Task: structure prediction
Amino acid sequence: MTDLNSPDNTEETTDTMRLQVFIAHSGVASRRNAEKIIQDGRVTVNGLTVTEMGTKVSQNDVVCVDGRRIEPEKRKIYVLLNKPSGYVCSLADEKGRPVAADILATKYEERLYNIGRLDMYSAGAILFTNDGDFASIVGHPSAEIEKEYVVEASMPFPDRVIDSFRNGIRIDNVFYKARDAERMSSRRMRVVLIEGKNREIRKVLESFDVRVKNLIRTRIGPVTLGDLKYGEFRELTPNEIAELSKTENDK
Result:
């Protein structure tokens, strides 16, 4: 284990890497979430708890997260899942509810984690990977990746709901604004979001006393569900990976 601040280790080499990068490359979490895992004291290197971001490690060091040894994945995986309603988006659930990542465990031995979330009662497109750099790019608001949803309400919703989504609406001191919104039928609408705040669509509709019956995410950037049924998944194409990986400077 070496120190990033050491004068002999100011540059990252192929033999050593920063601890948060090591964790991200091990399929545990994105690099940003890896930093929080370190700060929370959940990481040990050679048996010692490490909380400093500057720490560098090598392949010879024993790195553990929550007592479990981790190693960088040899194969990078990028998967689209059509998540069924009733599944939570986390690596584990203390309440014993079904976990979306477990659906992928039928095929992949690698530890895959979701990029972003869908709430338990929402369904549709969600991405999984073990590539922390990819997850950091796709999951960051600056990427401005569109997410498209189809919303079915329990009752016809008024036009002012769509107008509020397009023009923006403030609820409990939080501002919500869609990139696009349009009516599909009296009880169905299409919504395109960029950032996607927590339960944004549900909160906006509930503010008009409209209850969401079904909420399905149909698209993430260039990636669409296509013919995938609930619970089915597929790997992303090279073109999809390249498009999603574009940084702000690439666009």
User: Anything to note?
Assistant: The domain at 2-70 is CATH 3.10.290.10 (Structural Genomics Hypothetical 15.5 Kd Protein In mrcA-pckA Intergenic Region; Chain A). The chain is about 20% helix and 30% strand. The longest helix spans residues 31-39.
